[in-house]
Amino acid sequence: MLYVIKFLYSFVLPPGLFIILLLAMSVWLWRRQLKPAIVLLMLTIVLYLSTTGLVSDALVGSLEQRYTPPTSVQGDVIVVLGGGATQGTPDIDGQGNLSGAAGNRLITAVRLYRQTGLPIVFSGGQVFADSGNEADIARRQLIGMGIPSKDVFAENRSLNTEQNAVNTAALLKQKKWSHPVLVTSAFHMPRSVVEFQRAGLAVQPYPTDYWVSQPEAIYAGKFSPSGGAVSSTSTALKEYLGLLVATIKS
Question: Fewest C-beta in 10 Å: which of 32, 137, 169, 181?
Answer without folding.
Answer: 32
